[in-house]
Each structure stands twice: as C-alpha cells, then as structure tokens.
From TrEMBL:
<keyword id="KW-0812">Transmembrane</keyword>
<keyword id="KW-1133">Transmembrane helix</keyword>
<dbReference type="Pfam" id="PF06724">
    <property type="entry name" value="DUF1206"/>
</dbReference>
<feature type="domain" description="DUF1206">
    <location>
        <begin position="106"/>
        <end position="171"/>
    </location>
</feature>
<feature type="transmembrane region" description="Helical">
    <location>
        <begin position="102"/>
        <end position="121"/>
    </location>
</feature>
<feature type="transmembrane region" description="Helical">
    <location>
        <begin position="63"/>
        <end position="81"/>
    </location>
</feature>
<feature type="domain" description="DUF1206">
    <location>
        <begin position="21"/>
        <end position="88"/>
    </location>
</feature>
<dbReference type="InterPro" id="IPR009597">
    <property type="entry name" value="DUF1206"/>
</dbReference>
<feature type="transmembrane region" description="Helical">
    <location>
        <begin position="21"/>
        <end position="43"/>
    </location>
</feature>
<keyword id="KW-0472">Membrane</keyword>
<feature type="transmembrane region" description="Helical">
    <location>
        <begin position="141"/>
        <end position="163"/>
    </location>
</feature>
<protein>
    <submittedName>
        <fullName>DUF1206 domain-containing protein</fullName>
    </submittedName>
</protein>
<feature type="transmembrane region" description="Helical">
    <location>
        <begin position="199"/>
        <end position="220"/>
    </location>
</feature>
<feature type="transmembrane region" description="Helical">
    <location>
        <begin position="240"/>
        <end position="261"/>
    </location>
</feature>
<feature type="domain" description="DUF1206">
    <location>
        <begin position="198"/>
        <end position="266"/>
    </location>
</feature>
Amino acid sequence: MPSLQCLLRHRRRLIVIIARLGYTAKGLVYLLIGVLAALGAVGLGGDNVGTKEALAHLARQPFGTLMLGALVLGLYAYAAWRGLQGLFDVEHRGRSWKALGTRLALVISGGIYASLGWYGVELLDDPQETTGGAEERTAMLMSHPGGVWLVAILGAIFIGVGLRQSWRALARSYLNRWRQQDMSQRQRDLASGLSRWGLAARGLVFALIGSFLLVAAWQVDPAKAEGLGGTLDTLAAQPFGPWLLAAVAGGLMNYGTYCVINARFRKVKV
C-alpha cells in the first residue's frame, strides 16, 4: 500500500533525524568539556568539569539560555534514540543474551542523558542551579542498605566501559558503523585518527573514574570518589600534569568530534 510505504518512509526519516540530533548534542557536550580542560592545561583559564558542570558553564555565557535550550533538545533526542535502540530494537539486534545485554546498556545510557537533559531544563529556569559532586552522590548511595556494594558495581561498570572504549579505539571497530562509501579516503583517515584518540582518552577517563569508585567502596569513604572533572584534576596534579591533561583534553575534544562524525556518517539501520 502506497500510504503504508509513505508512513514507513517518514518513520525512518524521523528516527534518522533524532539519531543525528542526539549524536551532535552529545558531541558538543564533550567538545565543551575538552576545550575547557585544554584552556586550563595551557594556563588560559578554563576549568576541569563534568557533563553537568559543562552545561552550567554554557548557561552563564552570553546567549547561554538560547544555546542551552537547543542543546537540551539534542540531549533528549539522544536519550530517545537510545530508548529506540534498547526498548524497541529499531536496529534489529535480536533477543540473544548478548543482544539483550547491549540493549539494556543502551536504555541505561538513554536514562543518563535524559537526566542530563533535565538538569539542563533546571538551568534554563535558574542558571545558578548547582548539582552535587561525585562525593555527595557516592555518600547518598552508600547511605542505603547495600550501597557500598552498589558503588563497587558502578566502579566495575565504569572500568568495563573504559576498557571497551579502549578496545574499540585499538580495533577501530567504529569504522564498520560508518557509511564509508560516502567518505573520501582522506576524510576516512582523518576521522579514524581523531576517533581513535577520542575513544582512547574517554576509555582512560572512565577507567580512572571506576577505579576511584572501587577505592571509595573498599575504604567506605565517599571522599575517594571522583567524577569526570575530579579525574581531570587528578591527572593535572601528576608529574607532567599539564602535558597529560592537554593530551586527555584533546582526546575528549576528539571524542566530541567522533560523535559529530557519527551524526553525519553513522549507519542508522531502521
């Protein structure tokens, strides 16, 4: 039926638009985090911040409300895309144990970015809105029965995600998800190099965040936990810290670039 075909075509187009908007928004968040960290590394101001602090920084800029509003829409688009992948299996992953595990991770990712989008909405109402740091959030988890174990599990998950990101950088498995036929050889080589650096840097940061959470759980001390911003501060405090921070900051910017590349070239199988 022509009407059914038209409906399906519009459905596919809408899902592709949602995915592209979402990847772009996620990329812009990481680009902002990387730029702020890089500026701090070279002594030009800046700051080491996490995702929520990055949104708060944006909200305080000229035209910040307008830019943040657009970014919030994109973050909700990313959350919706993850939900479509995980709950409705629009990419046809199937129902094997491995596929179900992947789909669950996608749903959790969508929830995280929906929460980040909601924080952006709160910032639109009050740009001075603050959020608790990693120590406060960890202490809240530990205050519940079994909370220490939950913190340990979260630490293990972060380390697992970090290792997976690093493996993707090493194996360059992201290439299989791109429409490489739409890229020139030069574009493909440049995009691959930037993506590799970006995934490796994010993998390192996530593994460190997970390690801090494991230490916090082992010592039952929420002060040992660090989020993204605190992890960057820790890197900066090491020998050759500014150089190390600059390398990781560049990697986070490249991870943002990788997300934008996904917005343009990722295969959306629906």
